[in-house]
Amino acid sequence: MPQGRVRVRTNRIAQFVVLSLIITLAAFSQARSDTHPSSVPGIEVADGFDAEIVSEGLWLPLGLALDADRNIVLGSNCEMCPALRLSPVGALIGESDWIIDPDGVAVDSLGRVFVAGDQSVTLVNSLAGGPDLILAGGFSNLNDVVIGHSGALFVYDSNGEIWRVSTTGVVDPAPLTVTAMGGGIGLDPLTGGLLVTAGTPSDLVLAIAPDGTVTQIASLPAFSNPADAEQGGGPFGDSIYVPLAALGEIVTVDRASGSVTVFSRGFDTPMRLAFEGDAGVLVSDMNAGRVIRIFPVVPESINVLIDIKPDDKHGCFNPNGHGVLKVVIFGSADLDVREIDFNSLNLEGLTVKKKSHSRKLMVHLKYVNFDNLLDAVVTFEDNGHWTGTGGTATLTGMLRDETPIEGSDSICIVSKPGHGCGKGK
Question: Cα(282)–Cα(124) distance, rounded to whole angstroms?
Fold first, then answer.
């Protein structure tokens, strides 16, 4: 951060956030979900996710975007501040010249950085050592900017107006209008249009098609100040993710039903989101002065002890597309066999056999050895899809909570029944 006086801009975003926080101190959020503590004190996340602080000690980070190298570009909710470029791990690697009110930031496919400031849109060349260029001006308190599918810029102001601006500075004279205080704006990959949040008095998530048709997707908790709308993907599913600045939450919105579920909570003022593919989603937590990453947790596989053909000391198998193969999965201190998702089990291409009438899986829970821990005897069907090559065979699957399990045992493969071989035990 450059040395010198930084002036805080008391704009409509900041005023509304403070007002909303006061109003919602006793409010009961209509969105509820199960969350658990993350690795960041005070931040809770949905099951299957964790959080980490990417950067902190920042000056009111607001605008948030990623370049092609996953570097982070930040704007700030202050009257005069630079745009910042951080590495994916949060190290400062670049600063622009100071910009009036650098609220929203966007990066196009050529790596050019655009900032939506108080009344103007700026091409920020100073991050690369060149002179900045004001593309268009005369707006009213711009909040956010996004690069559309056409390559043009869309800027969103506090009056609820969305303007289309070309990269050469030509402004469409007929803005789209949302009848509420402006919030945030994102791309809609399903329609090629825009996802928009509208603030007071509406608190809505909207989809705007390329032809300008506006569709309401969801109504959010009153006075929650939805600040952005971004489409999830990969491990984040197909929901729309929305930070609620006044409630300190990020919620998911189902496009079909409009239902709202809490994804993460405990922020000070979550404002903007930027998805990093499967790596996670970044959150600018404005008043806390930090950027947080929420990322999917891949559970470590549990190694399980198995015995293939427990009643056959030779353990030989003829994979001819007929018959069955029994396997014992032994319970242990790390494995309660009752928690196994038996539908998920796979033994070198073989799946668990089902009973002909009831279609129930052929799984029997019993005490096989003498450790007083329940074991599972599983019958696999020789379905003609054996992929093993002999020597060993590997069982894979998962528990009901999607924790992967894996175990191997020695086996020999024969082309004719009765051909002897040893298991090497």
Answer: 22
At 339, the amino acid letter reads: E
pTM reported for the whole predicted model: 0.74
Half-sphere exposure of 164 (CA within 13 A, CB side): 16
Domain with CATH 2.120.10.30 in the chain: 12-296
Residues 6+ positions from 339 with CB-CB distance below 8 Å: 399, 400, 401
The span from the CA of 11 to the CA of 395, in Å, is 60
**Residue pair 325/317 in contact by the 8 Å Cβ criterion:** yes
For 125, 220, 232, 267, the CA distances from 259, given in Å and listed in that order, are 42, 9, 15, 22
CA 308, CA 394: separation in Å to the nearest integer?
Answer: 10
Which CATH number among 2.30.40.10, 3.30.420.40, 2.120.10.30, 3.40.50.300 corresponds to the domain 12-296? Answer: 2.120.10.30
Residue-wise pLDDT for 160-175, tens only, equals 899 999 989 999 988 8
Backbone angles phi, psi at 270, to 5 degrees: -70, 130
2.40.10, 2.60.40, 1.10.3470, 2.60.120: CATH of 302-413: 2.60.40
Taking residue 103's Cβ as centre, other Cβ atoms within 10 Å add up to: 30
Among residues 267, 281, 285, the alpha carbon closest in space to that of 43 is found at 267
Note whether 362 and 323 are within 8 A (CB). Answer: no
Strand order in the sheet with 35-37: 35-37, 44-46, 260-265, 249-253, 240-244, 230-231
CA dihedral 312, 314, 319, 321 (to 10 degrees): -20
CATH 2.60.40 domain locations along the chain = 302-413
Angle, CA 288 vertex, CA 266 and CA 200 arms, to 5°: 70
Over residues 219-229, the pLDDT tens digits come to 999 999 999 99
20 vs 160, 202, 222, 283, CA distance in Å? 18, 13, 9, 20
Residue 161 is encoded by which pair of tokens? 């107006």
C-alpha 159/C-alpha 145 separation (Å) is: 14
Residue 339 has pLDDT above 90, yes or no: yes
Res. 241: pLDDT tops 80: yes
